[in-house]
User: Fold this.
Amino acid sequence: MNVSYLPSPGLLRPREKLIARGPQGLSDLDLLQLLLGSGCRQVPLETLALRCRDILDHHGTALGPESLEGIAGLGPAKAGQLSAALELARRLGRPHHLRIKGPADLVPRLVHWTDRPQEVFLTVTLNGAQEVLGIRPVTVGLLNRTLIHPREVFAPALEDRAASIVLAHTHPSGAVEPSREDREATSRLSQAGKLLGVEVLDHLILSASSYYSFRENGEVFL
Assistant:
């Protein structure tokens, strides 16, 4: 019988995961732990990474060191290091060239959000050529989609002067079939988009292994 003394995948530390799987196999939390390197006496590394991820989930990547320094356990040096890494990623990864022809083009850019324990609602802004301008979290942990206000959803579109948007939210349960609330929210936000002159192209429901597209399934936004 072959016996391996390698740790099981669930016990691998981020650096070991990096070696075993490559960077694409790491969660956002793993990547943040690698960037931070270490915690401090009062705050363990994983706790610090969780705090940083929560801030990023609510505010996006456009955070300066002064904003990050407010995170307990994160000093000026680490805040500057993380801020620089986020800015570099934003510049290199800003997908102006990425033209969206359908959900399959966009889902790979969104699937990393599915490792959150709570639902995340996202707005994806697009220009007239259907190129991605930005991807921003709108809410985290709001289970009732009917409470999501159009003001928050369309604020990124107005800021980017977008021609259209794609809505997306995660289902931590793994089931991607839309609920009645999902359909009501989609219809309401689509109507708001028409008033603002910003078309809602689709609404995606995401899990780690699958997705549901309103557009692909022929659901018309009334």
